[in-house]
Amino acid sequence: MIKAIFFDYDGVIVESVDVKTKAFGKLFEEYGKEVSEKVVSYHLANTGVSRYDKFRYIFREILRQELSDEKFQELCERFSDLVKENVISSPYVKGAREFLETESSKYFCYVTSATPEKELEEIIRERKESAFFKGIYGAPTEKKVAIKKVLSKEKLLPTQALYIGDAMSDYAAAKSNSVKFVARVYRKDVIFKGVDCLKIKDLKALPLILKEASRI
Question: Where are the domains of the chain?
Fold first, then answer.
């Protein structure tokens, strides 16, 4: 029986992936169109990776420049300013709000995201979603570590949990803990092509999925 649900946030609860894509493009447009496009492509291929790791990779592998502590802090602050209000105002993934309002009290619901934890808590608070989640984990805590902590704290077997994500990093975090994974796919199913997992376009069918999973 499923007792705990782990949700990635961007692209699973809210339609905010494009907000962060545009922010990455904006941050690096001063380096030219070619660099900006490479940055956006890298971001889209690694949507579940923290911005901290992305900034370090971009400077090391794309710009071939040293990233100073001052520049790193500036990027973090500018990125947060660019995305926070837009994420707060982003629409829900279809079925997400309805599920949270009617079904979340039946499960231990947790958010595991690559967004910095304090920023994530503020977004969730502003969107009036705090009551739906028993816990919120963001960067720098790795998703696989967050899952392991929750399973231990709640005294749950991996078979009693479900992870819903939209990136391969989500799949890897779930798999490393032997937790069943459901992929939220949108547009073309490119990221999870060839991956053996249940794929859904939104959360409208989540209550039925959970009911069926609990029978296994």
Answer: 4-15+91-215, 17-88
